[in-house]
Design goal:
275 residues, Arp2/3 complex 21 kDa subunit ARPC3, 3% strand, globular
Length: 275
């Protein structure tokens, strides 16, 4: 197994578990009433955190950064529960963190931001586990694009434009994912928009598509546009600051030329330093 696949495996497993909470209406069966959504979400977040810490991908400084991101997003969410339409400023730091630090860190940043803000604001309910996964996947998407497009040096406008594209797409994706939790109970049995147990996948997708276009597309457009505006306005300095912080938090051990003995003297180079 290649190092890249090994690194992506934990967040991939967590995402598969979370995906189950969203796709069951399209599989023709109802979600059992005793499905432990809260348990699944907390176990996934806690498990990923422990795996990353055990693999030494998260040290005390990285944990402090996660806590800072969650605290800032909590303050933003308490101050502005919802902005214009569906826009909320909490996605911005999750996007930047995922782009710079990778998929697992991005997922944890998004998931912890939603969890901590829900606890702090008293907005705890059955919808929170779904928000944890949906916003966590914002960080995962940013991490995937960052892995493909980030260079080793200082972030440039190319990175900002790539991240703005992620913000636009995920603005709609998050809205569609969270709409599933409203669509099933509220529109249950509606002949043209609703869902019923046993409905085939094609009909379910058709009904949900109609529901989304009629009720949510315009609302989610504000979220997507808001993400783009925030990334374009603030992305370059924030990406630069996080990249410098990443360089201080991580390093590679590079054997000196001509030194063939294991454990010999080595030079330290931080990823992205260009040294």
């Amino acid at each position: 197994m290649s190092p890249g696949i090994r690194r992506a495996l934990p967040v991939g497993v967590v995402s598969l578990v979370g995906l189950f909470l969203f796709v069951w209406p399209f599989l023709g069966s109802g979600l059992p009433a005793n499905t432990p959504a809260w348990t699944l979400a907390l176990a996934c977040v806690g498990g990923l955190f422990l795996v990353e810490a055990g693999a030494r991908q998260l040290d005390s400084r990285a944990v402090a950064l996660l806590a800072a991101i969650a605290a800032i997003d909590t303050a933003l969410r308490l101050a502005v529960i919802e902005g214009i339409g569906g826009f909320s400023p909490i996605f911005f730091l999750v996007l930047c963190a995922g782009y710079v630090f990778g998929t697992s860190f991005g997922f944890l940043a998004g998931a912890l931001s939603m969890l901590v803000s829900a606890l702090a604001g008293g907005g705890v309910g059955p919808w929170v586990p779904y928000q944890i996964f949906a916003v966590g996947w914002v960080g995962v998407a940013a991490g995937l694009v960052g892995h493909l497009s980030r260079g080793g040096g200082v972030p440039r406008w190319r990175d900002v434009l790539a991240l703005a594209g992620v913000g636009a797409v995920m603005g709609f994706v998050v809205g569609a994912l969270l709409d599933i939790t409203d669509w099933v109970p509220v529109y249950r049995g509606n002949p043209s928009l609703g869902w019923l147990p046993g409905m085939d996948a094609g009909t379910s997708l058709l009904h949900f598509g109609r529901f989304y276009l009629l009720t949510s597309l315009a609302y989610d457009t504000f979220r997507a546009v808001g993400n783009v505006v925030m990334v374009l306005a603030l992305g370059l300095p924030v990406l630069g600051a996080l990249s410098r912080l990443r360089a201080r938090l991580t390093f590679e051990v590079i054997p000196l030329p001509g030194d063939r003995q294991a454990g010999a003297a080595a030079a330290f180079r931080s990823p992205g330093s260009g040294a």
